[in-house]
Amino acid sequence: MSSTEPLVRIASLTKAYESHVVLKGIDLEVKVGEKLSLIGPSGSGKTTLLRCINHLERPTGGHVFIDGQPIGVKRRNDAYVPMTSTELARMRASIGMVFQRFNLFPHLTAIQNVMIGQVKVLKRPRAEAHDVAMGLLRKVGIGEKADSFPDKLSGGQQQRVAIARALAMHPKLMLFDEATSALDPELVGEVLSVMRQLAAEGMTMIIVTHEMRFAESVSDQVVFMADGEIVEKGPPQQIFRAPQMERTRAFLRAIHDH
Amino acid sequence: MGVLELWTEIWPELLDALLASLKLALGALALGLALGLLLALARLRGQGPLWRATGIYIEVFRGTPALIQLFIIYFGLAAVGITFSSLQAAIIGLGLNAAAYLAEIFRAGIQAVPRGQSEAALAIGMNRTQVMAWIVLPQAARIVLAPVGNVAISLLKDTSVASLIAAPDLMLRAQDLSSQYFQPLQIYLIAGGIYFLVCFPLSWLVRAVEPKR
Amino acid sequence: MTDAASLSRLAALLPDILRTLLWGAGATLMLTAASFALAATLGFVLALMRRSDWLPVRAVARAYLELFRNVPILTQLFILYFGLARIGITLPATVAAILGFGLNGAAILSEVFRSSINAVDRGQHEAALAIGMTPGRSFRSIILPQAFPIALPSTGSFLIGLLKDTSLASAAAVPELAFRARMLVSETYLTTEIYLTVAVIYLFLSLPIARFVRWAERRSVPHRAT
After folding, report:
1. Hey, is the C-beta of B71 within 8 angstroms of any chain C C-beta?
2. Around B55, how many Cα atoms within 13 Å sit in the side-chain half-sphere?
3. Which uninterrupted H or E stretch holds A149?
4. Going by C-beta distance under 8 Å and a sequence separation of 6 or more, which residues neighbour residue C105?
5. Does B80 reach chain C within 8 Å, measured CB to CB?
6. Cβ–Cβ contact B207 with C under 8 A
7. Using CA atoms, how far apart are residues C83 and C64, in angstroms rounded to an integer?
8. What is residue A238's predicted lDDT score, i.e. its pLDDT?
């Protein structure tokens, strides 16, 4: 892999349902170590776009390439055929996703949540998985809650366990789907600071968020989407301080008028 | 003969017959659980010949009386050369019947596990089998515990129907004893009491496991 | 064994067999209807009793429920038909059957009705009181009409169960479908043919109710009170 090849390349991505089109041809590139924020009104398609990257949504047109390899399909002679579920699972293991509703496994403790991927997917021995898991839980600041079940944790704590669970797979890329939108306001900060820490350590991150100040401070690239299209993309200084498109300006105005 | 005197004379036989009923119920339950899970997995596909076939199975077994099912398996099959003992026919018949109900319970339980759970499991790279085995089924098991418990209790009561094909159970023994002692009222009341003493604690237990409303 | 001779015998007997079975099906339906009427009426009363302010009333209804649903229906039938006869109360078989299914069904339906009433949003009752209705009027005009569609699926399922349970009345010689079938089998020895036909007839009777239950389930996704 050459250092100029982007880690994530999205080419002419479309997603259509019977009733309407959610993504109308998206082209986007994310380099290694880059932090990209996706902002826009609800219904703009930003969550669908994110979920296409790890193929939780199947695009109806176009491709997503991770490290040069298409995800969800593979080349056979001159055509693309669907990947087997094993091949897909293997690709997904190197992509981490953090969900809006955490989706922690309720029948497992915090540390078991972080261990299960290592043991079942990476085939790591339990003792080693346990050490890695404890390290990650301490890193996100909840080492002392390792043996608690999710229903005993606050939203912020659960989301940090979810981040640790994703990191345990040693992903080359982390996807955040409105990671703080379901949290009480006073718990948002603890999750954002974990995300900031990850960013500082050089993780490649694609973040769908409504937290504009956070997006501005952490991103290398910001993409504003509306109605299934990219309206404007550029560095945060441009998007937030000097937006070129009226649509972008209108969106930012509406956000501020609260 | 007073009820108490009657009881002291016949209680060993009745307890023996109760054990027979319990064995019958357990055998049918085991068959029902195993088959029910397979049927549920087939029903989850949502389409295809297997899905259609299991759908018909479930409709047929839920739409016809258990008594008729037992008659067909015990008398009907015998007429075409396949003979079962009454106990075997009862276990098979009640088991196949229970499977139809359990299939729907299992299917609903699996579908009740939130979608986000399997998405999170897929996102960390598990394949579909791992997702089902480690994440979905364990959570579904908790959800179906109470309904399955109710099916088990119904099964125990339904073993009484097996008496009508002379399978060894409590009601069959009660019928024998009634003609022996000419006291059907007392004997059937005692039998009813025994069923109550077994089923009532069980249904109380099932209610305790139910998630709070 | 089905060979040419028995096939022609079957063909000759077919009209009589079908006529007898259809009579039996009719009796089954009437037995089901009568038992359901008793079960629904008594079950409704019991459900109201469960909601009473007086503990003894609630306790009686609760005891009734536990008693009747933890004993097999066959046992209850035998007590009413064989048991009572021996102490001088001889009930006609059909009456004993209706009584047995009705009393048993009342226990099951009381639970269905009770939980349907409870499922109506508490806010509905409070809103009714707030506009000056008495609790009684609120119950009759606001709660019950909303509890009714909620109760439909479970009541429909109960009805299917009742239809199938009437086959047990054959043990008391009630001339419903299962009894007719047994008699025919002992007369003609066409075991498999007759029982399979009977199974099909029960399916014909129960499938429309099952379809109704599915329809009612879809409809009773409640118009959520805001």
Report:
1. yes
2. 10
3. none
4. C35, C36, C38, C39, C40, C43, C158, C162
5. yes
6. no
7. 20
8. 93
Q: Do C192 and B66 touch (CB under 8 A)?
A: no
Q: Say whether B117 and A103 touch across the interface (CB within 8 A).
A: yes
pLDDT in tens, chain B (213 residues): 677 888 888 889 999 999 999 999 999 999 999 999 999 999 998 889 999 999 999 999 999 999 999 999 999 998 888 999 999 999 999 999 999 999 999 999 999 999 999 999 999 999 999 999 999 999 999 999 999 999 999 999 999 999 999 999 999 999 999 988 888 999 999 999 999 999 999 999 998 888 754
Contact C71 B189 (CB under 8 A): no
3-state secondary structure of B81: coil
Residue C34: exposed, middle, or buried by beta-carbon count in 10 A (0-12, 13-18, 19+)?
A: middle
* Cβ contact A193:A183 at 8 Å: no
By Cβ distance, the residue of A89, A91, A94 closest to B126 is A89
Tokens of C180: 């007719």
* C-alpha closest to that of C170 among A183, B130, A91, B163: B163
Note the ipTM here. Answer: 0.90
- Residue C72 has its nearest CB partner, among B64, B80, B160, at B160
Closest-CA distance, B122 to chain C, in angstroms, reads: 31
> In whole angstroms, what is the distance from residue C11 CA to residue C5 CA?
10
For A209, how many CA atoms within 13 A lie in the half-sphere containing its CB?
26
Of B65, B157, B203, the CB nearest to C178: B65
Report how far residue C158's alpha carbon sits from residue C69's, in angstroms, rounded to the nearest whole number.
Answer: 13
Report the gap between the CA of A107 and the closest CA in chain B (Å): 7
Query: Residue B130's closest chain A neighbor by CA?
Result: A120
- Taking all residues of chain A, what is their mean pLDDT, rounded to a whole number? 92
Q: Which residues of chain C have pLDDT under 50?
A: 1, 223-226
In this complex, the residue of B65, B77, B192 whose CB is nearest that of residue C164 is B65
Neighbours of chain A (3+ CB pairs under 8 A): B
Q: Would you state the pLDDT for residue C139?
A: 87
Q: What is the C-alpha separation between C168 and C166, in angstroms, rounded?
A: 5
> CB-CB: which of B64, B153, B192 is closest to C164?
B64
Q: Select from B113, B115, B117, B124 the residue whose CB has the most chain A CBs within 10 Å, as the one to mutate to test that interface.
A: B124
Question: What is the DSSP track for B153-197?
Answer: HHHHHHHHHHGGGT-SSHHHHHHHHHHHHS-HHHHHHHHHHHHHH
Whole-number Å distance between alpha carbons of A44 and A230: 9
pLDDT the model gives residue B213: 46
pLDDT digits (tens, 9 = 90+) for A20-52: 999 999 999 999 999 999 999 988 999 999 999
pLDDT in tens, A174-201: 999 999 999 999 999 999 999 999 999 9
pTM of the model: 0.81
